[in-house]
Amino acid sequence: MILESFSLAGKTALVTGASSGIGQTIAIALAEAGANVACHCRTEGNADETIASIEKTGRRAVAVLGDLADRATPQSIAEQTLAEFGRVDILINNAGMIRRSPAIDFSEEDWQLVIDVNLTSVFRLSQIVGRLMIESGGGKIVNIASLLSFQGGVTVPAYTASKSAVAGLTKALANEWAKHNVNVNAIAPGYIATKNTAALQADETRNRQILERIPAGRWGTPGDLAGAAVFLSSAASDFMHGHILVVDGGWMGR
Question: I need a surface site. Which of 27, 89, 131, 224 has the fewest CB within 10 A?
Answer without folding.
Answer: 131
